[in-house]
Amino acid sequence: MQDLTNMNVLAPIIVTHEASAGYMADAYARVSEGIGVALSISSPGALNLLPAIASARADGIPILALSGDVPTTYEAKGAFQDGSALGTNDVAIYEPVTGLAARVNRAERLPDYLSRAFERLGLPNKAPAFLQIPLDVQTATITGEHRLPELPEYSIAAEASVVDMVLEKLKSPTSKSILLVGPEARKRGFAEKIIQLAENLNVPVAATLDAKGTFPEDHPLYLGVFGFAGHQRAMEALLNQPIDHVVAFGVNFDQRSTLCWTDELARGAEWFCCSVKLGQFYTAPVGKKVIASPELFVSQLLEAAQSTQSVKPLKSLSWLNSVLSVPLYPDEDHQSTAAGIHPAKAILDLRQCAPRESIVSVDSGSHRVFCAHYWQSYEPNQYLTSASTAPMGWAICAGIAAKLAHPQVTSLVITGDGCMLMHGNEIQTAARYNIPVVFVVLNNSAHGGIHVEAQKHQSFAPELTQLPTHDWKKYAEALGLIAYQVDDPESLSSVYQEALALDGPCLIDVICRDDATVPNSYYVKNNINSL
C-alpha cells in the first residue's frame, strides 16, 4: 500500500465510506470518459461498496472494484472478515451486478485477470468488474514487466444502405423529424457531430435526462429533456405533434425515458434506433434497429449530408417553427415564502452565477426534478446524475470526483438534506484534500421526493416524510469547510459569487420551501395511468 502514496500517476483518495468510493469512481469514469477504480477490504468493506457497483452496472459505467481478502491459507478456518467462498462469499455476491467477478488465488495470474477485467470494462455493454485479491497474493513477488492493458474500443459502423435510407428520410421536403439522444451517445465526439447534423438538416433535438447536456441546452434547435423531469417543449413535440421520423441515438427505452413506455410517444412515427447494446432494442418502439456506435453513425450521416443540399423548404420549416415555439417550460410561480426559498429560484440563480463550463452533480429527491428542469448544461457529462437507481448522496461523492477528473473546471453539487443524512460526511474528504467543490444543500426539512407528492393525498402522514431541520452550515464548518446559510432569496447571488471565488471546498445551506410544486406532471400522470 505504501507504493500507492509514492506514485505520480495515481493519487489515492481515502473516503469515509466504501460506497462513497464507488460513487466517486462512477463519476470519475463519466467525466474522464475512461474508467474509475475503487478499493476496499473484504467482507464488510466489499459489501458496503456493493450498492455503488450495482448503481454503476445499471447506468453502464465501467468501474474496476478491487478488494482484499484474508490469506488463502486462512480460508475455511473461520478467519476474521473472510470474504472467500466459505466466508461471506463476496465474489458470488458481486456476480449479478458486474460483468466479471473473480478471485485471484495466484500472484503470477494477476496480470491475466486484469487483462480480462479491462476487456470486460471496454465492451459496448459496459459494466463494472470485481477482483478479490487475498493478502498473500498481494504481497507476493512476480517477475517480468507487466503493464495495465489498454481499454479496448469498439466502433461499429452502420451499413451504407441504412445511412442512405435514414438520411433520405431526414432530408425529405415534407419530413417532420426529431433526433433523440440517450446516454450511450454521451461523448464529446458525438456531441460535436450531432450539432453539425442538426444544423445541416434543420432537425430539432431532444435528450433523455441521462443524456442532458449532450446537445447544448441553449441551442435554437433544442427541444429539451424528454421523459422524467422533462421539458414542456420536448413533451409536446414527441407526444402531441405530428412526426414522421425519430432517430434515436443510444437511448435507454426504460421507464423514465419513455414516460412509462407510453403508447403516445411519437405515435405513428417511423423509428430508427441506433445502439451497439443489443438489449436496448427490447423495449424500443417498433422500427428499424441500427446496430452501430452512435458516434460513428452520426459521423456517417453527417458526412453524407454535407455532400448534398441540406436547406429544407418552407413547408418543413413551418412545422419546425411550430415545434420550437413552445416554451421550454411554462410560466410558473417561483415565489419564495416565509417558509423558505423556492428551489427553482435557488437553481436559476446558481446557473446564472456559475461559469458556463461548470460540471454539476445532482442528487436524488425533489431537487433532482427542479435541477433537470431549470439547470442548463452545454456539453456531455457536464450534468451528472445516477439515472437508473438514484442512490441518495451519490452526487456529494460525484462532485468530488468530477473536480479530480477535471481540475480546471468548476464543480458544483446540488443535493438535499435527506441526501446529506446518507453521505454528507463525505464533504470532509473534500476538506481533507482541499478539493474545491461548492456543495449546495436545498434544505426543505423533508424527504422531498416523496413529501411533495404525498401532500396531495388524504392519507398524508407528514411524520413519515418530514425531517428535523438541521444546520448544515455548522455541520460543514465542524468538518473543515467554509459554509454559508441563506434564507433570503435576494442574498442568493452574492453568496454564490463569494463561494465560487474560493479556492477550497464550501457548503451553502439554502433554506427552501417544502411545498413547491415539482415540475414533473407529464411523468407523474403517465406513471399513475400505467399502474
TrEMBL record:
List the GO molecular function terms: acetolactate synthase activity; flavin adenine dinucleotide binding; magnesium ion binding; thiamine pyrophosphate binding
Q: Thiamine pyrophosphate enzyme N-terminal TPP-binding domain: from which residue to which, for each copy?
A: 12-82
Domain Thiamine pyrophosphate enzyme central, chain residue ranges per copy = 175-259
Reading the lineage from the top rank, the first entry is Bacteria
Q: Name one GO cellular component term.
A: acetolactate synthase complex
Q: Which UniProt keywords apply?
A: Thiamine pyrophosphate, Transferase
TM regions (residue ranges): none
- Ranges in coiled-coil conformation: none
What InterPro entries does its record include? Answer: DHS-like_NAD/FAD-binding_dom, THDP-binding, Thiamin_PyroP_enz_cen_dom, Thiamin_PyroP_enz_TPP-bd_dom, TPP-bd_CS, TPP_enz, TPP_enzyme_TPP-bd
Q: Which GO terms describe its biological process?
A: isoleucine biosynthetic process; L-valine biosynthetic process
Enzyme Commission number(s) of this protein: 2.2.1.6
PROSITE patterns assigned: TPP_ENZYMES
Q: Which cofactor does it need?
A: thiamine diphosphate
Q: Does the keyword Transferase apply?
A: yes
In the UniProt record, does the keyword Transferase occur?
yes
Q: Which CDD domains match?
A: TPP_enzymes (cd00568), TPP_PYR_POX_like (cd07035)
Q: Where do the Thiamine pyrophosphate enzyme TPP-binding domain residues begin and end?
A: 363-510
Q: Which family does it belong to?
A: Belongs to the TPP enzyme family.
Q: Which PANTHER family match?
A: ACETOLACTATE SYNTHASE CATALYTIC SUBUNIT, MITOCHONDRIAL, THIAMINE PYROPHOSPHATE ENZYMES
Name the chain's protein: Acetolactate synthase large subunit
